[in-house]
Amino acid sequence: MTDAAADTVMELNDVQVAYHGDIRILNGLSLGMRRNRITGIIGPNGAGKSTALKTLYGFLKPISGDVMLRGERINGLPPYEMVNRGVAYVPQNRSLFNELSVEDNLRLGCWPFRRDKARIADALERVYAQFPILKDKRTDMAGSMSGGQQRFLELGRSLTLEPDIILLDEPTAMIAPKLSREIYDFITTLPEAGITVVLVDQNVRQCAAVSDHIYVLDLGKTRAEGDRAAFSDDERLRDMIAEWLDYQID
Ligand SMILES: Nc1ncnc2c1ncn2[C@@H]1O[C@H](COP(=O)(O)OP(=O)(O)OP(=O)(O)O)[C@@H](O)[C@H]1O
Ligand SMILES: [Mg+2]
After folding, report:
1. What is the Å distance from ligand 1's center to 48 Cα?
2. Is 78 in the same domain as 171?
3. Among 162, 179, 198, which residue terminates a domain?
4. CA dihedral 234, 240, 243, 247 (to 10 degrees)
């Protein structure tokens, strides 16, 4: 077993996934998430990045291949079991209750331990310490905040359960640059706190800058992978990414 394999906490192994019928969206995809590292997943629109995260979290069940969590095969385990196993997921689309207050959204994140008042108070304090703006706005309706502040709330809510793995789907999409920077700064602190990060991102440069290991997906398969150094040094990878960025911009 290589060092990388020994230290892999979550994996997709040769996974095939379809939404309907026979059209494979993931087509033999393999990914390995290193413990207490940031694994970046990049690729063009429709490559299957969000589908990969949904498969890791149990929303989709593979037709073939394995989803592994700390050496356990977890194909088809429902998402609430992932919560119990310390995995959090922040989806690409907004997932807040807009008409509820910021604090009530956080309290809902604490649902699995809803009878433990002291733990809830502690979880809220930790989120407020991390994102003070949420404390200022704790009685405001979630939907009244800016896109970036709503992202903070989603990230904060995912932390209430003290996960040790967090799956983030495009956390800075359509967020103003200043708040995006704050979000990346926050993400980079997670490994030190003992949290393994899986970061799907359309912002290739930022993702490559903060990730320890990067996978490039296209058509439901890995087209390339490497550590951060490989991504800045490897001309072939740089050309490939430049080519696809061009066609994204058109
Ligand atoms: N619920 C669904 N039903 C059917 N097909 C879907 C569904 N969701 C996604 N797809 C298709 O699966 C493919 C992969 O989608 P996915 O959302 O995983 O891509 P992505 O890499 O996350 O793209 P983006 O960068 O646009 O978020 C696309 O062709 C998409 O049209
Ligand atoms: Mg997506």
Report:
1. 6
2. yes
3. 162
4. -140
**Total tally of structural domains belonging to the chain:** 2
Q: Which residue has the tokens 């009530």?
A: 104
Closest-CA residue, ligand 1 atom 6, reads 19
pTM over 0.90: yes
Asked if residues 40 and 214 have their Cβ atoms less than 8 Å apart, the reply is yes
Q: What is the pLDDT of residues 216-230, one digit of tens each?
A: 999 999 988 988 887
Query: Which pLDDT belongs to residue 244?
Result: 63
Cα three-residue angle 220-201-6, rounded to 5 degrees: 70
Q: Please state the φ and ψ torsions of residue 71, each to the nearest 5 degrees.
A: 80, -5
Residue 154 and residue 173 in one domain: no
Residue in this structure with the two tokens 């207050």, named with its chain if needed? 101
Residue 144 and residue 74 share a domain: no
Take atom 26 of ligand 1 and give the residue whose Cα is closest.
45
- The domain in which residue 75 lies consists of 3-86+164-249
Ligand 1 in contact with 42 (CB < 6 A)?
no
Query: Do both 181 and 72 map to the same domain?
Result: yes
Q: Return the residue whose CA atom lies nearest to atom 7 of ligand 1.
A: 19
Domain boundary among 119, 136, 162: 162
- Distance (angstroms) between ligand 2 centre and the Cα of 26 equals 13
